[in-house]
Amino acid sequence: MLYPQRLRALREDNDLTQRDVAEVIKTTPQYYQKYERGIRPLPVDRLILLADFYHTSTDYILGRTNDPSFHKKD
Fold first, then answer.
1. Helices (DSSP H) in 1-74: which residue ranges?
2. Which of 16, 17, 19, 40 could be bridged to 34 by S-S, CB 3.0 to 4.6 A?
C-alpha cells in the first residue's frame, strides 16, 4: 500500500475530514487533498506530524510495515 492510500485509510478510520487533518498539519485542505491523492509529495515535517497525530510510525504511513503500532526506542 502506498502512502496516499494509507493517509486516506487513517483519516477515514478516525472519521475525519480532509479539512480536519489539514488543520492538524497546518496546511490547506487543497494541499492535503493533493498529498492524499499522490499529486504532491508529502514533506517529512508533515509526515512526522501525521504519525504523531495518529499515534503510529512513519514507516506505517509510508507502507514500509503493516504494523500500525508505534514502537518507541528508549
1. 3-13, 18-24, 29-37, 44-54, 58-62
2. 40
